[in-house]
């Protein structure tokens, strides 16, 4: 009964929670089969078995080894003779909120063709790392490694034992894994009740929908990931790695780094979103990027347009600019004016020095009517800063001087 | 001199509306508008003295020079060589002027790009490429760095636009 229920759990929810810390009774069963009672579970299981007879057959064709594994739990279910033997285990398993102890998971995996690749014990183990999703036997190693990683993170010695004991490749190892996982699950599983079951349900549903192909990342939806990911990181704090592999995501170092990078990019996108006006509603990187590009282009066009306008205004500007600038320069402490000018321009030429500029700017409002003629040249910067201040309206002589002293700009 | 006063008032008003441009996680400080104004005005004066009021056909030419001066002054004002895009801008301008501008070589982090992704690339690569073309110096940046530079660039651009707008308003004949 319990086993059948577990089977359904495992079947429907591919990734099992890997929580080791807490063992909580299974509060809710998979939505597809909400059956609290063991007997009911058994019945449903039996029915499922009947229905899945084809699945069984198919699965048995896969490999004798797996079949052997399957047989055991299946027979357990069928015969119910072994139930008492495992009753304690089963009851405990029944209490687990997340579906599937290893055994059941294995059973389900073995029994049903869950998305192609041989669902081995991996399937059972790795909910959190999403590896459990029916990765083929080839990938036993990876999930096992991940399992061990998770184990370490959780810091449960028993778990590590189990995973390590089961650590191996191939079907035989898968078998070992199954066994060990079963053991492990029986003993260890502590669940943070609601979280796990909630997650389990989510992932289970998704598992059911998505066939776990070789791609480790496909099955879980983003919502599930983020949701359970957060929960995962919340509950398990003592992990080695900074970037916690969220539930249902690969723990490959590459993908981790990639994920970090992606999150960096998305963080900056959000920042940009605040910058660009009118982009609150926009979601999604592509649209956002288009908006940003449009905005930058519009800004550049604005600058161009304004520069044209300025050029039209420019003839009038000459005198004003000079006076303005001279006035500005005048704000520099008067006695040291020449040196200040020289000090003023080099910073401007090389790098902006806001602190330096501020005092000058602050006194800009003061109109100074002094007559100052400054010529500066010889900086390696692009621009000459020649400031002339002339009360006379005739600026021709100034220009002559200026042109004489300046470098020619192409 | 009245328009000068107006201009100054405008600048002071600009000063009061300084952008709060510091983000906690991403540092995109942009100097105040006054700095931009100073730089720009200086470059403009430079331009005007160089090309005194002359032939009308140079309006376009002058406009382009003004634009270039605007960008260069913006790059200078916005932090010389501390920003990649400003350095690229200044380098570009210097090249046009047949000048070699040297910047202090910064320690470049090894940029590695993930060429292959497991999933299909959902990042709209065309958009990022376009962004690279838009933002100066964006050809060899990582995407995250590109985003940062874009943010700073946008801020500086908008500041420059405001400065120029004020200038135009202040100096346009009444």
TrEMBL record, chain B:
Biased composition (Basic and acidic residues): 118-132
GO (cellular component) term, any one: nucleus
Subcellular location(s) of the protein: Nucleus
Region of interest: Disordered: 115-141
GO biological-process terms attached to the record: regulation of DNA-templated transcription
GO molecular function, one term: transcription cis-regulatory region binding
Residue stretches making up the IBH1-like N-terminal domain: 36-95
Protein keywords: Nucleus, Transcription, Transcription regulation
Stated name of the protein: IBH1-like N-terminal domain-containing protein
